[in-house]
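In the present case, backbone shapes were mapped to integers, as reproduced here:
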Amino acid sequence: MMMLSFTVRNHLSIRDELVLDLTKPSLRTLLPPQGTRWEDHVYTLAGIFGANASGKSAVLDAIAYAFDAIQSSATTWQGFPNLPRLPFLLDDRSKDEPSGYEIEFVHAERRYAYGFEVDAEGVRAEWLRDVPSKRWRTLLQRDREAGMLKTHPTLRAIGQVTNRELVLSRAVLLEHPQLAEIARGLVGRFDQMTVKPGHREQRLRSITEFLADGSIDFDDIVTLLQAADIGVEHVDIREDSYPSDFQDLLKDIKALTRARADKDTQEKEDDPPPVRVAIGPEESDAVVRNLLFTHRGTGADRPPFMIGSESDGTVAWLALSVPAIEMLRCGGLYCVDEIDSSLHPHLIEALLRIFDDPALNTKGAQLVFISHDSYILSPLSEVRLEPEQVWFTDKSNEGATELSCLSDFPRHKDANVSKRYLIGRYGGTPRLAPSAIGRLLTRKASG
């Protein structure tokens, strides 16, 4: 999957419609010109810059929400009393209006546009179109107000869907012969890195489990750490068994959970079967695993360190780079919030250069990142972002996020983008009031 653009409205701080476009100016038609490929006309790298609380994370959150809805609305979301949604709440009308999402993407060398609208009652509308030759063709059209759900004659019927699930999500659940393949192609290669509490630690736990089952090679981890000049020479895993009383408690919780799920299934025979989420380790694998790092040094007996003793930079780099490498190997979309958190600019730059280099990024993997570090935009950086790859968020006086592109602003070829950004030429910079802090201190001292 290669994303061409993403459109969203009425999500978190985003009230009005915003479009994040990853296509190059060379793409002026629905299909690439003869003799070229999609990879020639789509950017694999895009950065979003802006002040704190200007809505940068809201853009990535909207992308993640759309992918999650496709993946989960027919399964785990069915356990919620209402369809989850996050409308704009700083005015009197948006909470009652639908939220909209649309993704234009390429799958199996074909262009698609998939979108949906949700409101307090559930899914309001849904559509899927493709370009089989030279014009758009509608594959799916759904309108709740009109009571309509139509699919193209070449597609097998999907049957009934509830107001709280997307057709594409139901198609995956039912193994629909055409729609399921499109849905998996869309969401199967998406990943995100957030700065929410515990997210990095959760990533490291997943990496540890993948190392244990052989999905990731130890040599890959060591190579990534050595590339970052962190000083780690060897990585290993330590396994400790859970206490027996804790294992017994987990078994009791699982038994109660399964009994409740079976009871709900009997009471709601017409609903989709509940998805059973694993709670804790299986009885056959009741161990806790921790990464151990052996560092470079002169001592003959150098004890390995657990992850809790490693620097924030080591944790951040592993959590960021391991999914990045998997994405580069297989292709897909990787969204990273605050990519510069706890990492040196040169290290970030190295990763961005790989995504931007078609000789290394042979699968066309895409990285959309958020950063506060203007170094990436400066002449000192070896990453050369085109104006269409640089985006800025700002807040209106009404508290709504606005998204603009560097290409929207006039500039000459040798302009120092970093300097102009920092002085506010493109927006996206905080409107600071240090005098307010001075008044606070003066008032406190006089009191």
Q: What stands out?
A: The CA atoms of residues 6 and 63 lie 7 Å apart.
